[in-house]
Amino acid sequence: MRTNQPQTIYLSDYRVPAYLVDTVDLRFELFEEGARVHSTLSLRRNPAATEPGAPLELDGDSLRLESVALDGNNLAPDAYEDRGDQLVVHSVPGQFELTVVTWIEPQNNTRLEGLYKSSGMFCTQCEAEGFRCITYFPDRPDVMARFRTRIEASRQAYPVLLSNGNDVDRGELDGGRHFVTWEDPFPKPCYLFALVAGDLVEKRDRFTTMSGRDIDLRMYVEPRNAEKCDHAMDSLKRSMRWDEEVYGREYDLDIFMIVAVDDFNMGAMENKGLNIFNSSCVLASQDTATDLAFQRIEAIVAHEYFHNWSGNRVTCRDWFQLSLKEGFTVFRDSQFSSDMGSPTVKRIEDVTLLRTAQFAEDGGPMAHPVRPASYMEISNFYTLTIYEKGAEVVRMIHTLLGPDLFRKGSDLYFERHDGQAVTTDDFVKAMEDASGRDLGQFRLWYEQAGTPVLTVSDDFDEARGVYRLSVEQCIPDTPGQSRKKPQHIPFALGLLGGDGEPLPLLLAAGEKNAPVERVLELTDEVHHFEFHGVREKPVPSLLRHFSAPVRVEYPWSREQLLFLMSHDPDGFNRWDAGQRLAVDVILSLVGAPENATIEPRLVTAYRQLISDPELDQALVAKMLQLPSEAYLIELSEDADVPAIHQARERVLRHLALSLRDELMACYQRNLSSGDYVVTPEAIARRSLLNTALSWLLMINDEEARALAARQFSEADNMTDRLGALRALVNSDYDGDRNQALAAFYQRFQNDPQVVEQWFSVQAASQQAGSLSQIHALLRHPAFDWKNPNKVRSVVGVFAGQNLAAFHDPDGSGYEFLAEQVCRLDDSNPQIAARLVTPLTRWKKFAPAYRALMKAALERIRDKPGLSRDVYEVVHKSLAD
Ligand SMILES: [Zn+2]
Asked: What does the angle CA 611 – CA 614 – CA 615 come to, to the nearest 5 degrees?
């Protein structure tokens, strides 16, 4: 559908469906030139519907209608209306069967929604509204039905035919064709429908559930990827066990399948019993995947598996409730990753993403509540706010209730709503009912957009031994929302005495057994807290574990930050103090003269981190990462990106020069010994090794240059090989860079996921990612406009990570992005709309940049036939 004035859809307009579907019988005839879809729906009027005489309206998109029959009789052309995006049958009985035959062309489907072809196989993506590209259907999540699916195709070209549920029938057909029939006993919304047909190899495993049922686990991949399934399979089994132990949730079908697909708009999809994954989010081997990829795969496999309960058994009533399944499931997968690795490191990673990208979204023109009130195109709402902030909201409920009452609440939620399509409010209600806590004010987290700011001030009354803390909350205006009400915020804190010892937090004089950490609950605009029995002015450790998704403003001195960096018992806040110090040092150098001094205590603090092997090395590895340019921009008004970039580079080089010998020792100490393993310790070791190497190459250290070349050619794993490649690419050694890039490509050119990493390393680098080099990458034979991963790895990475080049003062980076967005808009609007994001933040930047970014947005706006997806993002950005 192309339209110039897309309609806005409002939550307040929600009505129950006029018709319900009990069963869906599908027959797919798959051919090279297209597919014929026979769909028989058993329908009945919804007794709860508000308009009892309403005609039957089914959604459709890009379908060719061949026939419509009601209770077996073909309908005359005047009995129905084919409106393109809707099939309307004017007069229907209270209960009936409707058979619709449509013709579709999966081979020409470049939007990758509905049924399409990827690397020669048929596959589907139906969330959010892809099923309507397959057949006419009431395409909304609150219509749940039992599906039976028969797939027919050439046996030779498509030996594997898969759909949801259990495989109940199979056989041969004429002309070298065969069929398989699948039946899913659980009612589900059509967005969870899936189909796969291809020439795939099967990897099998088994899992025994807590009640002793044997589950058949299968992965389907292209033959060349047969050796890259073990990690995902192990992750799946760990997820299944964890969900039983922590949430009491057992798997329900006899078979669980995962399929890897190269061309995929999203990361992965939780279709009932048949999860479909972007290849890059599931395939891994020591030789081709980095530690980061191993961790990401484990998390995504877990996420999709957990959806079987939080999403499939209990689903969303409408798409405004998307965070019901996503926020809760991201929270669950983050708990899982935390249990599998280091909780502190996992928290640091989650918060880094949240503060860098979600806070930016929440402060920009696309800001929306966790439960939005309106949208034009639902695909644009698969956002960091729905996912990551949504998970933080669930996490706060967990903090407020404690683990036991939270579990009671989740049990009640699953029990009460199993088989239903519900709202975020139903979720909160279950938590309230199980715990007896009033979450009335807490619900504002779902309704109000914007990141709350907590302004904290303190004073110390030495005579009375009282330390006073005042906290004021303020929620900034966001598009369509102003004058917001105070929210219910769990605020965890501790106080440290002069020797670094944690002080007991007495809220009343003489309180016995006071804890050293408390979660204060903020509900009013201003709160004053008094802590008694304090002998000297303490250093506050605020918002421990990042107990709420808020900004904290407190006038920390550099002494206090250095003190917290080495003494805070909360690892997260120790890291955070280091980040705040580095941010303060870097931002004070933006626009400063060349000879301005760099805080010497920063060097001392980093020296201690690098040199003390007694410290938690996983935490040290995180603490050594300087705040990213994106985060520094997020914290700036009128950002001048090239100046921020320079200031950050200056600090990095200064640290590397001052700590050269310590870095070299750190490198040697962390050199690999023994087999490659993916444990938190080994990951930390490789991270330290590669950080040391990249810093040393920034100062053109000849010894490090030789070490990098050696590491590049001798590494037995992708983390170290790519670490060396990245260090060489970002160095000033042009010859080494080109040689390494050529050797890397030569070796891995037949592996699309590794080639994507090869593209990314270049697109993210100032040395290898100039605009002319980016254009050359787009012309590279391995680049493919039809493959979203390739587009993201060049265009997305350039605009999102190579910030100094993207924000070139001449505006060429912006023009480039506008051009690529327009180019993609016709073929894949979902991906095009996502690529626009960096331009939407134009108000963050210095006036000269703003004007150029706005001009690029206007250029996109003026493209004829703009998709609804891109239209919404561009118009909201310009309107704000
Ligand atoms: Zn999800």
From this structure: 80
